[in-house]
Amino acid sequence: xxxxxxxxxxxxxxxxxxxxxxxxxxxxxxxxxxxxxxxxxxxxxxxxxxxxxxxxxxxxxxxxxxxxxxxxxxxxxxxxxxxxxxxxxxxxxxxxxxxxxxxxxxxxxxxxxxxxxxxxxxxxxxxxxxxxxxxxxxxxxxxxxxxxxxxxxxxxxxxxxxxxxxxxxxxxxxxxxxxxxxxxxxxxxxxxxxxxxxxxxxxxxxxxxxxxxxxxxxxxxxxxxxxxxxxxxxxxxxxxxxxxxxxxxxxxxxxxxxxxxxxxxxxxxxxxxxxxxxxxxxxxxxxxxxxxxxxxxxxxxxxxxxxxxxxxxxxxxxxxxxxxxxxxxxxxxxxxxxxxxxxxxxxxxxxxxxxxxxxxxxxxxxxxxxxxxxxxxxxxxxxxxxxxxxxxxxxxxxxxxx
Length: 402
Ligand SMILES: Nc1ncnc2c1ncn2[C@@H]1O[C@H](COP(=O)(O)OP(=O)(O)O)[C@@H](O)[C@H]1O
Ligand SMILES: [Mg+2]
Known about the structure:
Elements: H1 18-22, H2 40-56, H3 59-66, E1 74-75, E2 81-89, E3 93-101, E4 114-119, H4 127-145, E5 155-158, E6 175-179, E7 183-184, H5 185-198, H6 204-230, E8 233-234, E9 243-245, E10 251-253, E11 260-261, H7 286-289, H8 297-312, H9 322-331, H10 344-353, H11 364-382, H12 386-390
Parallel strand pairs: 1-5
Antiparallel strand pairs: 2-3, 3-4, 4-6, 5-6, 7-9, 8-11, 9-10
Helix pairs in contact: 2-4, 6-8, 6-11, 8-10, 10-11
Bound molecules: adenosine-5'-diphosphate and magnesium ion.
InterPro entries: Kinase-like_dom_sf, Prot_kinase_dom, Protein_kinase_ATP_BS, Ser/Thr_Kinases-Pseudokinases
Protein name: Protein kinase domain-containing protein
Domain Protein kinase: 81-376
């Protein structure tokens, strides 16, 4: 994939024209069943604003600096993809399974293990929002192609031409091809909840196995965020809906459209004035919500709420009415209740991590180190004794001696 610092033009501007870029669009299989055609004026606006947004971000120099060391990902054209059913959607994009990849490169891909992420058609009604989302999905593709970590979603290909692809006047001009995930952390938490409810009697062995799974999830998530931070990437949208598992159960963080590359700094407490209220309010650090400067530690805040949710299976602030949430959480400092049974070190870590005092908040690296110890303590405390393992063993028949 090439860097997107080139200037591209829409069909309404002088050159190149849509046809010189694509031939006739109708020759190509549209990526989306409801592919929307934007008029020339809207297309020009989308292109212009999207390019401005990309030029303002730090992605272009960052991407170029890593180009030589990044894995070269492929390009797949619209007509080479046959879409299957929709797997899910967020506010601005939809994700589809792939039935088939056609053409010369078909043998390189296992279509059934891949998905396509593309913008939602409704965006075409709002050109300014469409432009912002167009830039964001292209930047997401560029950022993902620089990342390689077992707990971060892997991108396999994109459509050609980056932001310039939107010159064809289609809402679905650009798309990402990524590995397929089987369930999200949100789904898994629900599964754990129903497992708990099904067990009428407190079953120590089952609890212990679930605890092991919960700890594994939090460890893998911590590793993913720590890797991003080592690359100066602030993820900004950590929440169970953006965390998934592949067919082997390996955790993968995905949805990088609001991730931000921060300037280099050796001071973990240096703050940066960045966009206000980015992310999802339930997991958003107070400094982001209030429009104050922030840094990588905003992800540590979100991580601590996810830790609490994974351990208690309860949504953070789930009992606060949404109209009251901002005042309570961002200004009055309301936080989830910690359990008495948790080790003190774990409780202290949560409290420091979700504190409004950013300087006192640990870095992700520090948090991971503390958690390694705390998780070991939790597993030791909760390890069922041999007696517990034996509880359900069938009793051997009594032996009567004549
Ligand atoms: N790689 C994937 N495999 C399977 N489903 C996915 C994948 N990526 C995303 N999804 C589904 O699509 C939804 C929207 O994707 P996401 O990247 O979060 O889009 P948005 O940026 O609009 O939030 C996700 O919540 C999830 O249900
Ligand atoms: Mg999402």
